[in-house]
Amino acid sequence: MNIIVCAKQVVDVSEMKVDPSTKKPILQGVPHKISDIDKNAMEEAIKIKDKNGGKITVTTIGPSDAKERIKELLAMGADEGVLVTAPDNIDYHMTATLLAETIKKIGSYDMILCGEASVDLFSGQIGPRLAGLLNIPQVTYAQSVKAEKDKVTAERNMGDKAVTTESTYPVLITVTKEINEPRLPSLMQILATANKPIQEWTADSLSSGLNPLVETVELKGVPMERKNVIYQNDLDESVGKLVDSLAKEGVIGR
Amino acid sequence: MVLVYSDNKKLTIEMLSKAVEIAKQQNKKVTSAIIGKPDEKLAKEYISYGANQVFIAETNLESFKAEEYADILANIVKETDVETILIGSNKNGKELSARLGGKLNAGCIVDSNNIYVKNNKLMAERVVFSGNAIAVEQFNSKPAIVTVPSKAFDPLKKDDNRKGEIIKKKIDGEKSPSKILKVQEMKTEEVNVEDAEIIVSCGRGFKDKNDIKLIEELAEVLKGKTVGCSRPIAADLKWLSEDHWIGLSGHKVKPKLYIAAGISGQIQHIAGMRDSGIIVAINKDPEALIFKSADYGIVGDLYEVIPKLTAAVKEKMG
């Protein structure tokens, strides 16, 4: 079974600072990582390969330093990597189009695995957009996947409903964080990545003349103006003051 | 034309009010789409909430598949002059919108709660970086697709005098090779945190599943009766069903009073409750992030604070 895992390099939001005066996020100097849920997709790919055999190719669209992130996924268990170097600030349409072209160039595949969304923007567009471009079935929000020779079955969390979907190949599946616990590669595995190939292709060589259909024209700060009245001395007194305050605010009372 | 679609009636009605506003600015009409059985009563209701036209795509599809629904919507778009598409932001709606965007080469923004026209371009704002920023997105495509979460917009007042046209058409879209084997209602405890006026939430500060009764008692005396929780309680420990889960991947809420007990205040949780009226935090760690997002806070052991608070509220409420 040939599996393609799509992964994204993101800023580590937990390390992100906010400018105290403008309230805008400071993006410079924030460390990068592989989007967490893409690691779940990688882990699932490894499990499927362990059972069914085959090959895992991991692909990412991003800046050239994303090569280091691909190495992390090769250490986990991917066989090959493809990095498509692209300018910053490409939109969902451009990313999905570049992935579609990359996958066509890679050639044959049975399954594409993606995280349900990236942890930075959390749009969850790339999986379904890509499936739409390739015109293949999409199985989203999978919490468990059972891959057999001719078909795959997934249990999906659709919010108010649990849906079990079966599909033939080729298929695109997006997974949730709950599906598994991504492994940590051993030192041996990390060293072994030196022998695994990483191809580097440029965005222009795959698809020229791509323009964004949506553009982020501004990143605004989020005002979080709260009173921050914190009681921390005598507990009975604190509780009393809190209840009085809530009554004054009009949120409790008769 | 502004096209509105959701499989959820409430979301459709909320989006119709925004669609009417955008249509006015673009000098266009509003069309609401229904996919499935020809439900004229529902169509009339959508007209009474502002739709100029209701397009019923008659199909005999038994269950929702994004592949098939995206194809039907693409057919509707081809037949009409659609400039803007608003789709309800439940999980079905999100996977549908993105696939439709791929098929039509159209821009798409999910989960926007602020949509407007500026310099003849459609703009949509959405929260990014786990709630650390708001991205202002500008569309360069036609159609432009935006998904809208529940409660982002207030519905128009229902007016049965509004007139509109109902178009029925059989559409045989592409069939997907995937099969839906089973659809099961999620195990829920019948709570609706998104509509709650008062929510008391629990997090990792709770040591045992049985201790959740402490906040149930507090919620009860507050007449809120609604219990929420952070991710670990619903997704990892499964002490409460997912309909209690508040946060970026859970539910987004805006009650008038939100009490967070034993919740550290990870940005993912804050993203789900930041629009609440008054936020109260109870945590034994004075450095806990949650206090930065709170109006009022008590530093103390929740096992001591909550029973005292419950008693004090009871006394106050009389």
What would you note in describing this structure?
The complex is a heterodimer of chains A (254) and B (318). By secondary structure, chain A is of the alpha/beta class. Chain A folds into 2 domains: 205 residues, Rossmann fold, CATH 3.40.50; 31 residues, no CATH class. In chain A, helix 3 packs across helix 4. The radius of gyration of chain A is 22 Å and the shape is globular. The relative contact order of chain A is 0.18. The mean pLDDT of chain A is 94. Chain B is α/β, with parallel strands linked by helices. Chain B folds into 2 domains: 169 residues, Rossmann fold; 125 residues, TPP-binding domain (Rossmann fold). Chain B is built from 8 helices and 16 strands. Chain B has a 7-stranded parallel sheet, with helices on both faces. The longest helix of chain B is centred in the first third of the chain and has 18 residues. Chain B is elongated, with a radius of gyration of 22 Å. The interface between A and B is large, with 82 and 90 residues.
Furnish the topology, listing elements before pairings.
The complex is a heterodimer of chains A (254) and B (318).
Chain A: E1 2-6, E2 9-11, E3 17-18, E4 25-26, E5 32-34, H1 36-52, E6 55-62, H2 66-76, E7 80-85, H3 92-106, E8 111-115, H4 126-134, E9 138-147, E10 152-157, E11 161-167, E12 171-175, H5 187-192, E13 198-202, H6 203-206, E14 214-221, E15 229-231, H7 235-249
Parallel strand pairs in A: 1-6, 1-8, 6-7, 7-13, 8-12, 9-12
Antiparallel strand pairs in A: 2-5, 3-4, 9-10, 10-11
Helix pairs in contact in A: 3-4
Chain B: E1 2-5, H1 9-26, E2 30-36, H2 40-48, E3 53-58, H3 66-79, E4 84-88, H4 91-104, E5 107-109, E6 114-118, E7 121-128, E8 133-139, E9 144-148, E10 165-170, E11 179-185, E12 198-202, H5 213-221, E13 226-229, H6 231-236, E14 257-261, H7 267-273, E15 278-283, E16 296-299, H8 302-317
Parallel strand pairs in B: 1-2, 1-4, 2-3, 3-10, 4-9, 5-9, 12-13, 12-14, 14-15, 15-16
Antiparallel strand pairs in B: 6-7, 7-8
Helix pairs in contact in B: 3-4, 5-8
